[in-house]
Amino acid sequence: MSEKFDITNIAKLASISLSDDEKQKLSSDLSVILDHVQALSNLELDTNIEDVYIHPLEKELVLDQDVEKPSLTHDEALSNAPKASDGKFIVPPSLE
Amino acid sequence: MNLKPTIGIETHIELNTNTKMFCRCKVVDTEEPNISLCPTCIGLPGALPVPNEKAIRYITLLALATGCAITKKGMFHRKNYFYPDLPKNYQISQFDLPVGENGKLEIVIDNEKDYVEIERVHMEEDTGKSSHEGTGRIDSATSTSLDFNRSGVPLVEIVTKPVIQSSKVAVAYIEELRQLAIDLDISEGKLEKGNLRFDANISVAPSESDELGTKVEIKNMNSLRSLERAIDYEIKRQSSAIENGESIIQETRHWDESKETTTSMRSKEGSADYRYFSDPDLPNMVLSDEFVNQVKDSLPPLPHENRNKLVETGLDLSDANVLSKSEKWILELYFEVFDNTKDSKATFNWITGELQGQMRKLEIKSLPEWFSPAFLSDVIKLIDENKISFTSGKVILEELIQKDTTPDDVAKKLDLYQENDESAISEIVNEVIKDNQDIVERIKNGEDKLVGFMVGQIIKSSGGSINPGIAKEILSKELNL
Ligand SMILES: [Zn+2]
Predict the structure, then answer these.
(1) Option in B75, B130, B273 nearest A55 (CB)
(2) B67, B103, B303: which is closest to B183 by C-alpha?
(3) Residue B45 has pLDDT above 60, yes or no
(4) pLDDT of residue B268
(5) Which residue of B has its CA nearest to A50?
(6) Which CATH code of 3.40.50.1820, 3.50.50.60, 1.10.418.70, 1.10.10.410 fits the domain covering B422-478?
(7) How far apart are CA B351 and CA B233, in angstroms?
(8) Is pLDDT above 70 for B244?
(9) Both ends of chain B: CA-CA distance in Å?
(10) Tell me, what's the pLDDT at A2?
(11) What is the reported pLDDT for B385?
């Protein structure tokens, strides 16, 4: 296990199960990536975050008017559901 | 050990837009499941979110009304977690560049102004609704069923700084925030419908300590009453744990309404566990000065401004607070009636006491269209001028709510006008004195309380048309008391 992160916890958060071999391989891959990205922390950035915040897209966000547009019918929306009942999607029990 | 509680509140307000936050599916208020969905709000691959201009306008209104600084170049982030009511496996929310920051909200506590500092106001989307099918107990559920009609409905989250000291202040804060949302016309503000939902972060620390104690988040409070009781319970629980030398665990606890206790839900995820990152589908959101100024210009009178206006009419702050949290027509009615009567207290009492009381009794929600504000000021003036009794005023009001008539017509029809002609009253008073010589004798010998009996006799023989105060005055004069 790397000191920088807990691969088991990351796997849990991503909701994937990893074998010990996979954990080892992904840990070393992730370490390389993190070291690479680490270079960024050497940059001196302006303290005004609003000025330096850069989104991958340079475009500005376009907003849409609050006017209803046709959407899926009830049957279309449920057509990909693994299981449905009484008009609802049914999934395995999931509790907080 | 002297301990002090510190509370911070996170409130979610569902906006009353026509369509959802990131798609143009209609926001529906129905039990019929899954009827307003599209690829975006059920998280189908390839669907792209497009923000709702009106929702952005509404959150800007709220941020300005709470005195927040507006973030001119903001952005949306993905908050990642797995739960079936969140079909994309992330919620579009805001992280370090919320729409508004560092505001405050004025509240009224015991006839005094107080302020709750606001940390941030940010935009996000609601989740779907899940219900657990099975045999009773929640942990024995056999499946989870999902309705995504609510998925993607615009939600504003308002987070206070940890500055609230008691459940009383917490309740006043929620009441104020709810009224603000209603006055801004950005939400229905109905707690019972889930338009406004809140969680509380509570910690307890030694009074002299500058640091806060370990914070515990309380969820599942569905009413102001449960908010108040959950906070009081949690302060007590933490205080006695600290006094017993136990440590407080950082966790989320669930308010159990029937048992009136909080129980541990699960250990709280740290914010890093949500793995926030900027949503690549949504570029920087730039709120231009022009847009912000335009929103500012459209701000309606705010609750605290209404209170200031009400206090100027002579009401105390706590009465002004009651009216500032009433329906709009009541506030308008107050000002119209006050304009005529110039009597703030009587106007307040008649509206909030008699008028609303009778409307509740008659189970009517709004005044009939024939009911003019002038009716109420006429009734108040007739009482002030001793032309009718207080009781007659109530009778007249009840008639006015139910029939298309006027105060004068009712007073005449029911013979409610009091005799104010002094000579006519004197005549009746002398008549009663003549018939009750023995009582008069006893009054003259010092039995003061019999004056009340005499006044009663006078009113009785006038058929109720004499004002008791005037009757007493004339009686005293006639008997040289
Ligand atoms: Zn949709």
Answers:
(1) B75
(2) B303
(3) yes
(4) 46
(5) B73
(6) 1.10.10.410
(7) 36
(8) yes
(9) 64
(10) 42
(11) 86
Cβ B148 vs Cβ B38: under 8 Å: no
Q: Where are the domains of chain B?
A: 3-293, 326-413, 422-478
What does the longest C-alpha to C-alpha distance in chain B come to? 100
Q: Please provide the distance, in angstroms rounded to a whole number, between the alpha carbons at the two ends of chain A.
A: 29
Distance (Å) from CA B44 to ligand 1 centroid: 10
Q: Which of A56, A66, A72 sits opposite B53 (nearest CB)?
A: A66
pLDDT computed for residue B139 by the predictor? 59
Task: Please tell me the pTM assigned to this model.
Answer: 0.87
Q: How many CB atoms lie within 10 A of CB B107?
A: 23
What residues of chain A have any CB closer than 8 angstroms to a CB in chain B?
Answer: 13, 15, 49-50, 53, 55-69, 71-72, 74, 77-78, 80, 83, 85-96
Beta strands in A28-95 (DSSP E): 84-85, 88-91
Helix ranges restricted to H, A14-94? 20-38, 49-52, 74-78
- pLDDT confidence band for B230 (50 / 70 / 90): very high
Fold of domain A1-43: Histone, subunit A (1.10.20)
Ligand 1 centroid, distance to A2 Cα (angstroms)? 42
User: How far is CA B103 from each of CA A15, B34, B123, B154, B294, rounded to the nearest angstrom?
Assistant: 38, 38, 16, 21, 20
The string of DSSP letters for B47-106 reads -----BHHHHHHHHHHHHHTTPEE-SEE--EEEE---TT-TTSEEEE-SSS-SEEEEEEE
Token pair 């009216």 in the structure block, residue:
B323
Q: For residue B286, what pLDDT is reported?
A: 92
Q: Which of A53, A80, A90 sits opposite B145 (nearest CB)?
A: A90
A68 with B37: Cβ contact below 8 A = no
Asked whether the beta carbons of B88 and B94 are under 8 A apart, the reply is no
Q: What letters, b where the CB count within 10 A reaches 16 and e where it falls short, cover B442-467?
A: ebeeeeeebbeebbebbbeebeebbb
**B260-289: pLDDT as tens digits:** 999 987 654 455 588 899 999 999 899 999
pLDDT in tens, B447-473: 888 888 998 888 888 777 777 888 888
Instruction: Tell me how far apart the alpha carbons of residues B153 and A24 are, in angstroms, rounded to a whole number.
Output: 42
Whether B305 contacts B335, CB under 8 Å: no
Q: Tell me what the pLDDT averaged over chain B comes to.
A: 92
| CB-CB neighbors (< 8 A) of B50 in chain A | 62-64
Give me the mean pLDDT over the A64-73 stretch. 95
Helices (H), B102-245: 167-183, 224-243
Q: What whole-number distance in Å separates Cα of residue A20 and Cα of residue B241?
A: 41
ipTM surpassing 0.85, yes or no? Answer: no
Q: Does the pLDDT of residue B172 top 70, yes or no?
A: yes
- Local structure of B174: helix, strand or coil: helix
Identify the CA nearest to B65 among candidates B258, B300, B281, B288: B300
Inter-axis angle of helices B289-297 and B53-65, nearest 10: 70
DSSP bridge pairs for B143: B133
